[in-house]
Amino acid sequence: MARHLTLVPAPGRSEDAVLSDVEPAVRACLAGTAPLAVLPAGAPAAVEAAHAVLRPDEPLEDGADLVVVTSGSTGTGRGVLLPASALTASATATHDRLGGPGSWLLALPASAIAGLQVLCRGVVAGHRPTVLGEDERLADAVERMPAGRRYTALVPTQLRRYLDAEPVALSAFDAVLVGGAATDPALLDRARDAGVAVATTYGMTETAGGCVYDGVPLDGVRVRVADGVEIAGPTLALGYRLDPEGTAVAFADGWFRTRDAGSIDHEGRLTVHGRLDDVLISGGVNVAPQAVEAALREHADVADAVVFGRPDEEWGQRVVAAVVPAPGAQPALADLRPWVTDRLGAPAAPKELHLIAAVPTLHTGKPDRRGVAEGLR
């Protein structure tokens, strides 16, 4: 008998809606009784685009229990087919790595894999989630959580904001998982100096979320570097919704090809250097936008940054930076270029600078690098 998706609208930051609509749907999904997809919140165009990817009228592929629409940060989003076994394996391995099951604070969108995995972990641990309200203080949300081990997951921008505003509340968690985008080493050092038990996570929707913690794969997960970082193990997705050709390319021979550049040291620890597709070639030299962004954020005049490339007749591609000024500051290209040059070399120094009010994000919480580039044309 054909199975079809149950579509649930994203509830935003409403605890009542999460507990009444999304969390029970996740519970049924993990039990294998009701295949699920959570629609993104926001503009009708985003919901329409998700519908186009999900195609709920079409029968669902065998074995899939959850379909998650990727952010489309490098193009059109895709529907990733995840079995309940992959979600449960990820949640169990996460608790094993962190020191045991606990209660979770949901501070991320429930339509993306990072937020959905918070809900899955809660189901596996037997704890209903606490939801951080839209304008709620982090400390107030922590006070509402049950006693015992407490966990949350954030993107780097959230970690930075809460370190600025509520570092004591952050230190109340037994673990703060940070993923979704490259995390600056300086930010991690600052968090750990403040007593925050932060752990970096690497993974994607196709691996049921983070599957490498602080460079070390979760139990059962295997990682190698061939044509970029490749991942195998029990947390892998089945493939892409209604895209057998794309599935065959990305998931060949039981390994998922991430298209991320990376390296593995002699202790087996993975370091990810950024997207292979994102690398800029300026003057014949490879430049990783994430590394330039990290260097810019270390400058006293810069609160946040996004870096991308534009065609250049002389250099092939020129490095373009869009930065959020620190309070009271006015960043200047003449100051930022030597700053980046000293840290990464001259080819990485921006040749064009734009000042923006904030870095926009995708529904996953990741920086919308493509959106910034298109908005500054």
Radius of gyration: 20 Å
Average pLDDT, rounded to a whole number, is 92
CATH architecture of the largest domain: 3-Layer(aba) Sandwich
Helix content: 25-40%
**In CATH, what is the class of the largest domain?**
Alpha Beta
Describe the biggest sheet? 7 strands, mixed
Residue ranges: pLDDT <50 for 5 or more in a row? none
Structural class: alpha/beta
Q: CATH homologous superfamily of the largest domain, by name?
A: ANL, N-terminal domain
Topology-level CATH name of the largest domain: Rossmann fold
**Quick one: how many beta strands?**
22
- The shape is globular
Give the count of helical stretches.
12
- Euclidean distance between termini CA atoms: 50 Å
* Structural domain count: 2
Strand order of the largest sheet: 6-5-7-8-9-10-11
**Strand share of the residues?**
25-35%
Keywords: Ligase
Protein name: O-succinylbenzoic acid--CoA ligase
Enzyme class: ligase
Domain AMP-dependent synthetase/ligase: 58-217
